[in-house]
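Researcher: Structure for this, please.
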Amino acid sequence: MAVERIALPPPDRAGGMTLAEALVRRRSVRAFAAHPITRAALGQVLWAAQGEADARDGVRTAPSAGALYPLVLYVATAEGVFRYVVAEHALERVSSRDVRGDLAAAALGQAEVAEAPCVLVFVAVVTRTTRKYGERGERYVYMEAGHAAQNALLAAAALGLAAYPVGAFEDARVVQVMKLGRSEAPLYLVPVGAPRFAVGGAR
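Model: Predicted structure, token format:
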């Protein structure tokens, strides 16, 4: 059975908002407009989180201990669940089911997770790092998830999008909803979309 791949527009590697302005504008915004974000905007946020900074050596936009890259990035939308294919800057369909409502339930009933046009699901294969660094490697994985999520949040801010990080969820339910593999552990949910209202103060 052929796997559906959806190419994303090339990321903007040179223009856009300055880092300082994106830092100032970043807010945890939980009110989303109903319409989906563009494929270009989604691709930019995914690239910022886990894309290749330089395709020649495969170095990504977020630092990784030993360049082992334990993170796997999924996207849940109304059209289904997709995995971000880093080397191709593309989406690979995993499921045609809209799981955002189930993710909201797993996130202790946070309705905004279901309302967001897309939800980034940061997952880790921890053994990729612990094989080299032992028990300490688990800490490195959590650090890396923080780096990648912040990149995504800053990219969303630079694009004028609403986004916020979610750490409160039931791991087992997210594993079940996303049909993750035995070695995959969910670390972060980041709902992303156009803001329903003008962005206010930080929370």
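Researcher: Any notable elements?
Model: The longest helix spans residues 136-158. The mean pLDDT is 93.
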